Amino acid sequence: MYDLKKGYEVAKEIYGQYGIDVDKAIEICDKTPLSIHCWQGDDVIGFEKKEGGLTGGIQTTGNYPGKARNAAELRADLEFAMKYIPGEKKVNVHANYQEADSFVDRNEIEPKHFENWANWAVEQGIGLDFNPTYFSHPKSENGTLSAADEDVRKFWIEHGIRCRRIGQYFYEKTGKVCVINHWTPDGDKEFPVDTISPRLRMKDSYDQIFEATKDVKGVMDGIESKVFGIGAESYTVGSHEFCMGYVFGKNTDHIILTLDTGHYHPTEVVSAKLGAVYAFQDHALLHVSRPVRWDSDHVVAIDDETKAIMEELVRLGKLDATYIATDFFDASINRVVAWVTGLRNTRKALLAALLQPVDMMKKLEADGDVSSRLAVTQEFKAAPFSLVWDYYCSQKNAGVGLEWLKEVKAYEEDVLSKR
Ligand code: RNT
Ligand code: ZN
């Protein structure tokens, strides 16, 4: 290992030239919570004790051995991964990760079915986020919150209601706000003739969920849009316009817009949307993912868009206002490697964004010196943030460089491969 302290000192000198406070950047980076999605650990299947696989137009591909077969294994894998993910963390649980003795349907779930998750989070000193599971269910085949069948729609409304109550339970147990994300797969393979009725039903369903649970405390509710799902390529009820319209129209302090990086047309980017969202909103929820040609949910990379999102949050001054969650599911590689790589990349991109002279850039822009603005922003694309990252990881005992990889390989050998 190289001299980490020396690397850090050199970086401090370089960044110091621009008036950047490296220690402050580390501190902000460290305390920004990242919500780790539990579903990378078992390919989005969950532990409901019912037959049937993943539906709703999302897909995992690959059959890499060693996935978690029950919640205890999943938590053990998460614990292992978290050792190598420095900084403040939350874990994001989906409703289908319930732990009941026998099958409990979605309209009957209660806090007690998530007690192990809550106790574990308290033990780990982390917060929990939550998601209704409006997919992978026989009743989700012809719409959920937008279903024309009133019994089916009622069933999913009840699910949403139950989930908000479980969110409050998580808040009470952990003392940390529970961010709930509502995503529905509702859509059509072909172009429907009536494109508004499903949307009016979905709008009414959300209204009913929020009205019935208006006493719920400590919960934020993201509404997540999508461009299309597999098998529903022509029409999406919860489109971007629908979700944005719903959230902006409600104008409450807890209903917010979720922006998933894979849920827009391929040339649209979330980084370009944040400034518009924040012209109207106090908060937003991000699903950080990596869409390769479509919403493929690849492991988050240190790519231009991940860096641009973090830069935008820092420049907007909206880091505190934004709930950052990851959302990817790669079943073709070691799932712990997927978590650690994706989460480290997310945080590393954040650190790189914090190590930039934002005030200087803003001043150049305000002064109309757009030539210098270009030069300065480009210079920082290749700034030595990884020296600071390595030092930070060593301070947090999170493994410097690739140190963590051999540990995860050993865990694979000892634990995962025996499943
Ligand atoms: C699906 C959405 C949604 C899911 C999770 C499992 O396209 O991105 O967020 O990935 O709820
Ligand atoms: Zn998502």
From TrEMBL:
Database matches in Gene3D superfamilies: Divalent-metal-dependent TIM barrel enzymes
GO cellular component annotations of the record: cytoplasm
Pfam families xrefs: RhaA
Reactions listed under catalytic activity: L-rhamnopyranose = L-rhamnulose
Cofactor list: Mn(2+)
Binding residue positions for Mn(2+): 263, 295, 297
Top-rank taxon: Bacteria
Keywords linked to the UniProt accession: Cytoplasm, Isomerase, Manganese, Metal-binding, Rhamnose metabolism
A Gene Ontology molecular function term of the record: manganese ion binding
InterPro entries: L-rhamnose_isomerase, Rhamnose_isomerase, Xyl_isomerase-like_sf
Family: Belongs to the rhamnose isomerase family.
Designated name of the protein: L-rhamnose isomerase
Organism whose genome encodes this protein: [Clostridium] methylpentosum DSM 5476
GN (gene name): rhaA
